[in-house]
Structure formats: structure tokens, C-alpha cells
Amino acid sequence: MVNNTGGEMKRFQQYINGCFEDAAFSFESLDPSTEVAWAIMPEARETDIDRAVEAASSALHRSDWAGLTASQRGQLLYKLADLVAENASYLAELETRDTGKIIRETSAQIAYVAEYYRYYAGLADKIQGAQLPIDKPDMDVWLRREPLGVIAAIVPWNSQLFLSAVKIGPALAAGCTMVVKASEFGPAPLLELARLCDQAGFPPGVINFVTGFGPECGSVLTSHAKVDHISFTGGPITAAAVLRNSADNLASSSLELGGKSPFIVFDDADIDSAANAQVAGIFAAAGQSCVAGSRLLVQSGIKKKFLAVLRAKAQAIKIGSPMDMDTEYGPLCTQAQRIKIQSLVDQSVDAGAELICGGVPAEGPGFYYPPTIIDCSKVPKAPAVVHEAFGPVLSVLEFDTEEQALELANDTDYGLASGVFTQNLTRAHRMINGIKAGVVWVNTYRAVSPIAPFGGSGLSGHGREGGLEAALHYTKTKTVWLRTSDEPIPDPFVMR
Ligand code: NDP
Questions:
Q1: Which atom number of ligand 1 is nearest to the Cα of residue 461?
Q2: Whose CA is nearest to atom 44 of ligand 1?
Q3: Residue spans per domain, the chain
Q4: Cα of 220 vs its chain's centroid, Å
Q5: What are 460-482's pLDDT values in tens digits?
Q6: CATH code of the domain made up of 10-257+456-479
Q7: Which helix (H) or strand (E) holds 53?
Q8: Which residue is closest in CA terms to ligand 1's atom 25?
Q9: Average confidence (pLDDT) over 204-211
Q10: What is the tens place of the pLDDT at every residue in 360-418?
Q11: 290 in active site
């Protein structure tokens, strides 16, 4: 099939029960930097989802998976990590092509993806139960940790390889089976990851990959009776729909949602370093990051100076083709996202906020939107301060005291990430204690590691990804009571 510029389009397939196959329906994926369709994607609907969940359900207890030892599961994950590393440049290129995220970022991020798989490969045989010191001499009591079951993993468009690795790694390490639903936007790298899972040797049905539209594909998956747990990353409105969908089956869930993360700069901060971190926090990935530090709170004494440095850095960002290694900033993933961002900016400016830079979409092909800074000091409840843009829009508020900084930082329904820039150690500790967020970065921002748990509260969701904690989330305990006495059971009418 060819696109409207006469180019041949690449075709991707879904992966169900160890087979690559076309779906009955398909859709075109656009290159966000040119707006030209470049690939045909399989569109999963009810029958595909049903087959994928059935495959995961029957693989869960089948001996070729359930019979593996924990270290054998770890070996499969090591193999997957190696394959991801070997295919890093191809995966990065696919992600850039399909989402518009710059190749510089996708190339660096893929190294982390392999690292996450390695971490969980090593953890597979460290997930253990416990002996319980029960106060009954004729009983041995212990906890077994068993796989939680069939996991539905759903990810948004912005970093599908990374956001799925933090689910796939711990879930497979724990012995679960999975159906992974890629976003309809930019699904290519995840559908390609299916090939690597296949090559790594996971038995058929252990991991299945589909893509399709949220309401049809996503809601069928999350309401499926054989799904035991939903690991969802996306926005809070969709998360609420997911919970409603799963309510009849009482599936458990972990929700990694959005944020409106405060980035707090005190007057003793290293201004250049803080400004670089703020650029990373809001303009890396064109702001399409759940941890975007989208609310700058700056102490009044340095506000003017800090904004001048920040604006100069924002305006010097090299915008261009996402495929070019020199490019620092590419397009947004979709036109809908660009429209939403523009509306947030326009409403804030209409309410009295002052545009410091950006705010006008770029002309020409591609869903480009410039780095945008809006001073909302006169309208602290402006939409750009309150709502997640999931784009390159930084709102600015000022404060005088530490107490005001904390009050503003916590004046949000979200609670995902936060950043504090100060040279004052005791103040840093007070801020760490006071901030309501799942992550606090002090004098740094946007740092990650597979060893460090990550997650939020409030509208940012619940549950944690990363670290040992995440692997334990994919297990359930079974309490075993074994009576060691050969004596007959005494009085049957009392609790033992
Ligand atoms: P959405 O919530 O719209 O979509 C997320 C995923 O859910 C997509 O795969 C989507 O499919 C799917 N989906 C949509 N409707 C349904 C449904 N009814 N039932 C089940 N699944 C459905 O999020 P966005 O795509 O807009 O992503 C941006 C959001 O994700 C932001 O809020 C961002 O902060 C958050 N995010 C959170 C992260 C975290 O770790 N905390 C990391 C990255 C992003 P489709 O795309 O095909 O519609």
C-alpha cells in the first residue's frame, strides 16, 4: 500500500499466542513530523482481544511457563534485554518515526529499557515468600508468593517501550502472563518488541501485543472477565473509565497517571543549573512527559533574572526533524494534542497571564508547537497552572517564603513529581517532608533508575513501578498452614 506522497507503507502485525497476524481491521499511522502516513497498523477489536486474553489465561498455568523455575524466567528476560540492546537503534528509529520524539532521546531511552529488563531478570529469583513465626508449636506456617495472574498492560503514546518495560519486566519476572495494548498513536516500537519477545523464547501466549483504539480495544480488554489485574498508564479521565470497566470483574489495578509537577527555585539556587534542569523538565520530549515540571515556582528576588536565563535557553533550543541527531526538540505526537495545548495557552492569556515566549504554533508540516513560558503570577488559577498540558507549556508563579512555596506546590489535585533547587540543606529537608508527591528531585530533575520506585497519589494514580516493590505487586500471597503433630485434632468446636 502507498501513501499520498507515493511512498510504500510499512505493515505491522499483532502478536497473539505466539503468532504474528493481521487483524481484521487496520489503520494508518502518521509521521508527526511530516503528517504523512507511513505505516499500516493492525486494529484489534473484540475477537482479537478475546483471543489474546484467552491465550494469556491458558499460558498462565501451562507447564512450559508455570513449570519454569524463577531463574529460568530470569534467563528469558536477560535474553530479551540483550535483544533490546542489540536492536536499540532500530527500535529508537521506529519510536521516533511513529511518535515524533527526537532520536537523541529515544536512543538514550532505549538503553534504559534494556537496563530495566536486566534488573527484573536478576530479580526473578529473588521474589520470595516467608516463614511466619506463628505462636503455635505444632504448626509450620509460611507465605508463598504466586503470580498475580493475567495482566492487561495499557500504555500511552509518549514512551511506549519504556512505559511497557516497567510493566513487562516485573510481571514476567513474577510469572504472570500479559496482554499489552499499545496506544493507537505510535504503536510501531511495541509491535516490534513482540518480535524480540518471540526470539527470546517466551512460550506462546505468555505475552501478547495488540493495538487499537481506546474505547473499542482498551475497554474490551479492561472489562474482560479473565483479566486479573490492569496496569494502566495514561490520563486520569481514561483511568476512571478503566476502573468502571473492570468493576464487574473486581480486577485489581495500578494507575500511573498525569501530573502538574512543581519545580521550585529558591533565591540561593545555582541559576544556570536550575534553568537547565527546568528546560529538561518541561521542554525535553516537547513536554510530553508525565513528570514534566510544568509549574515553575520561583522566589521573587530572582524571578526576573531566572526568567531571562530560562527564556534565552528556551529560545536557543534547536527545533527540527526528530530523525536528526542534532535536533533537541521535535513535533508533538498528534494534531489533537497541539489543539488542546493551544487552547490552554489562549485561555490563560485571555485570563490575564503574560506570554514570555512561544504560544503560537509553528507553520508548515508537522505537529510542531514552540517552547512556551507563561507568567501566571497575576492569575494563579489560570488553566495553564491547574491543568496538565502534556506539552511544552511552563506556567510561572512566584513566592516569597518557604511556606508559600509549599502551599503553592501542594495546591494541585495531582501528586506525581517535584523538583527543589536550593543550596540550603535544612530547607531542602523541610521541602522534602512537606511536598505531596511520589518523587522529589533535589537539585536535579527527570532522573530515573530501575532500582527506584516511581508513582504518585491523587489524580496521579496509585501503585508504584520500578524496584522490588513493583515485582511484589505482580504477586499474590498464599498462606500455608501445615500441622506437624500426629496427635488427633482436639476439640473441633473451637478455633485453633
Ligand atoms: P489516555 O488516557 O488517553 O490513553 C492512555 C492509554 O489508554 C492509551 O493506550 C489509550 O488508547 C488507552 N485508552 C483510551 N481509552 C480507553 C478506554 N476506554 N479503556 C481502556 N484504555 C483506553 O492518555 P494519553 O494518551 O492522553 O496520554 C497522556 C497521559 O498519560 C497524560 O496524562 C500523562 O501524564 C500520562 N502519563 C503518565 C505516566 C506515568 O508514568 N505516570 C507516563 C506517561 C504518561 P489510545 O491511545 O489508542 O486511545
A1: 41
A2: 290
A3: 10-257+456-479, 262-442
A4: 21
A5: 999 999 999 999 999 999 999 99
A6: 3.40.605.10
A7: helix 46-61
A8: 156
A9: 98
A10: 988 889 999 999 999 999 999 999 999 999 999 999 999 999 999 999 999 999 999 99
A11: yes
User: Ligand 1 pocket by C-beta < 6 Å: which residues?
Assistant: 154-158, 163, 181, 183-185, 213-215, 218-219, 222, 233-235, 238, 241-242, 256-259, 290, 388, 390, 416
The pLDDT, as a whole number, for residue 8 is 85
Question: Pick the catalytic residue: 290, 333, 376, 398?
Answer: 290
DSSP assignment of 159-203: THHHHHHHHHHHHHHTT-EEEEEE-SSS-HHHHHHHHHHHHHTPP
Closest ligand 1 atom to the C-alpha of 290?
Answer: 34
As a whole-number percent, the residues of the chain with pLDDT over 70 amount to 100
Output the pTM of the full model: 0.96
DSSP string, 78-100: HHHHHHHHHTHHHHHHHHHHHH-
Atom of ligand 1 nearest to the CA of 337: 26
Q: Whose CA is nearest to atom 11 of ligand 1?
A: 214
Residue of the nearest CA to atom 16 in ligand 1? 214
Q: Is the pLDDT of residue 7 over 80?
A: no
Grid coordinates of 151: 495482566
CATH code for residues 262-442? 3.40.309.10
Residue 344 predicted with pLDDT over 90: yes
* Straight-line distance from the first to the last Cα atom of the chain, in angstroms, rounded to the nearest whole number: 71
DSSP-derived letter for residue 381 is T
